[in-house]
Structure formats: structure tokens, C-alpha cells
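Researcher: We're teaching a course module on how sequence relates to structure. For the next exercise, students receive a sequence and then see the predicted structure as C-alpha cells, so they can try to spot secondary structure elements on their own. Here is the exercise chain.
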Amino acid sequence: MVTKGISLLGSELLKISSTHRLRSCRRLCSSISKGKALIYHERGDPEKVITLQEQTLPEIGSDSVLVKMVAAPINPSDINAIQGIYPIQPSLPAVAGFEGLGEILQVGSNVTDMHQGERVIFPGRFTGTWRSHVVCPADAVMTVPEDTPPLVAATLRVNACTAYRMLADFEQLREGDTVLQNAANSGAGQAVIQIAAARGLKTINIVRERPNLTELSDFLRGLGATVVTTESALRKEASTLLKGLPKPELAINAVGGKSVISLIKNLQQGGTIVTYGGMSKQPVMVPTGSLIFNDIKFHGFWMSRWHEENSGGEASRQMFHDLCSWAKSGQLRAPQHKLVALDDYKMALKMAQAEFTTEKQILTF
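Model: And here is the predicted structure for the students to work with:
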């Protein structure tokens, strides 16, 4: 569900012409010296340690850009970083946020490949997107095509890129093959469904039991899911639910614990399980026989490391090109979301940590 009327965002942003935005940039950039930011001075409960503060912007260096933020999502990795349990720990005090979409207001004298009015994302290991304005090195941002839907662009770096890489890097999947995943209603899970469908792949999607299961199942099928089920239903009715589908070569795990056993039981011999999250906060439980007799392969995946090692390379450029192309064609949509004005950040933080949540909270500036 998209909340409308908060600001010029989403589809409305597409209606603003480049000429209008450039005129606005020229009027505003010379007078901007301060901005607002969500800052934490200690690590802990995000609802308690995050505060909205005014910041004085630094001077724009010759190799820097001034960016006006447009939208930035709240991801689990953002929450974990604030809590102090994520591998990336910005120095305190820190501005929260790992990704988002911004618009260039001004470029430094040495910056020749970026211009006022262009939209940019943060493809590398950049932190601090939960703020109205940011001055950063030009090589910390990447322009996105003008016709990329804004809310897709704002959520590309974490969820969509994670889904893309897991589908591309671990098995040689061909059109008609099947992929199995748990946590299918998560932002990454929704992206897996859509990217798989765009590639002609089928998906078996496991979600937790919940009051609105039918509504959620319909939503995921609308994204392109082939099968939506729960672990208990899969245990009881696998032969019926999966009838006619090739046995998956790839399973994607964001839960850990005993949930992995459901993936193993429905995976092709010699298949691969990729773990990118641990929502259960339990170790990945693997029956010994799966390793010995079924030759199941297990891999972990961390998108931040991939970005760090591949930023600016051909694989990264191709990935963002494909994602933006699918977004333009409507094959890749933003995750189910709610737009929240920056001043209402406490509500957004609370909702982002709610149980059974499917809506991604997206801060607007």
C-alpha cells in the first residue's frame, strides 16, 4: 500500500520535467547550508537512540556532489546496524541508512560526468542516507536512468541486488527451472519472485502462517510467484503443491534454524542452498545425511561485500542495467511499502520491526 499526498514522490516524481527540476536546483543550491538527519550517538533500540537533528552541510569540494535525498527505505540491516549487531559499524555519532535515491543539486568543479537534476543511488559501502541532504564524493553515487521508477531506484542496492546475485551466481539456471525460497514476503523475497519471473524461472515461496495468509498469497502471486505455501502445508502436501514443477536446483534461505530442513527436503540432489539472512536467530540446521548422501552445497551471501569487491566493474554495471530495464518495463516493482515523512520516523521505525510485516517503510524527504 502506498500512502499518497505526503510529498512529490513515487509516480508523481515522474511528472516533474527535467527542466523544472534544474530550475529548482539553481534556485535552491546556492542557499542550502543546513539539512535534517536521523542520527544516533549510541547503539541500541532504534526507537530510543535515533533522533532527528539539524546539520550544517560541509562545503562542496571539487570532487564532491550535493545531493537532495528523495526516498530511503528502512531495511533489516539498517535496524541491526543501529542496534550494534551488524558487521558494518559506522563511527558514532552516525547518520543511519544504507541506501536511497537522491537528486543532484550541485557538482564540484572537477565532476564532469554528473549534472544537476540527475537522480543517483549509492552503489558502494556508503552509510548515512536518512537525511535531507548529503555532500559526498562523486564516486560514492551512481546515476540511474531518468525513466527508472523512483521507489524502485530507492530500493535497488540492498534487496533487488541481493536477489539478482543469488539467482545469478550459484547455479546456472535456465528458463523453466525452479527456485525455492523462505521469507518470500520480505523485500528480497519479493525481488526474487519478480526477477525470477522476468528470467522465465518458476518460484516456490514459503511464508509463515499469519492471519492474512490468503491476502499475502494473492499479492505474491500477483508479483509472479508460481507457488505460495507455508512450511506445514509443504510438509503435508508437497507432492500436490509441487506437481509438474522441476525439482529446484537452488534454494534461498533468510530464516535459518529448522526452516532449512524444508528447503533441503525439496531440493534436487547436488543442489545449492544460499543463506543471506537469519530471521529465526538460530543456527542453520543441516542433517548430516544431506551433506553425505544428497551432496547439498551450502553458501553464505552478503551483498555489502559483493558491492565492495565489484563496485564499478562490468558485473555491477550489467546488474544495475538489467534491474533498471526490468523496472522500466514494469517487471520489477518496488516492494510493498508505506511512505513516511521524515518527521514521522519513530512510527516508521516501530512498523519496520513489527511482526509479520510485509510493508517496507520508506522515508521521504
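Model: If you want an answer key for the exercise: Residues 69 and 211 are 36 Å apart (CA to CA). The chain has a mean pLDDT of 90.
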